[in-house]
Design brief:
By secondary structure, the protein is an alpha/beta fold. The chain has helices spanning 14-23, 40-50, 63-70, 79-87, 104-110, 128-136, 152-160, and strands at 8-9, 28-33, 55-61, 94-98, 114-118, 140-144. The chain has one domain (28-160): Rossmann fold.
């Protein structure tokens, strides 16, 4: 029986989940974001991230952190809805909601083998605390290209027109 909600982890549960992967020798890929309105750019990105390792954990920005990052009209979908939608994807093995605007505390908890960011980042523009956190646990950072013309902001603008 399928139940994507079982893939949603509390931050308190993440270390035990992570340890189980380590014991089985499964490399963990981690990414994070708002994932407000899912589109082909997100799917392409998440599938590409998952293909880099044995399991993919998505850190999902909470509603409070999305508002801080994107403005008072966002998110369009509440965090629990966004978590269920992301968890329902075959390429995603786990989802954990975090409340901060930056992912460094989340990354300290998760200890990724590979941390993936989208092509709107470079190694220099990436939050350097996040970078140091990943490097401190022996992880590496991979930047994946964006799908041209695909973004939640563009989609919202198109709907508004």
């Amino acid at each position: 029986m399928l139940n994507s909600r079982l893939k949603i982890l509390s931050l308190a549960d993440v270390p035990r989940w992570r340890d189980a992967l380590r014991k089985r020798g499964i490399p963990l890929v981690v990414t994070n974001g708002c994932f407000d309105l899912l589109h082909v750019g997100h799917i392409t990105y998440l599938e590409s991230a998952r293909n880099l390792g044995g399991a993919l954990l998505v850190g999902l920005n909470s509603d409070v952190s999305v508002r801080s990052l994107k403005g008072p009209t966002r998110p369009l979908n509440p965090e629990q809805d966004r978590a269920i939608v992301i968890a329902a994807l075959e390429c995603v093995d786990g989802v954990a909601i975090f409340t901060e605007t930056r992912a460094d505390r989340f990354l300290q908890i998760v200890e990724p083998d590979i941390y993936v960011k989208g092509g709107d980042y470079t190694m220099d523009s990436l939050d350097q605390t996040e970078r140091r956190t990943v490097e401190a646990v022996g992880g590496r950072i991979v930047i994946l290209p964006l799908v041209p013309g695909k973004s939640t902001t563009r989609l919202i603008e198109k709907i508004a027109r």
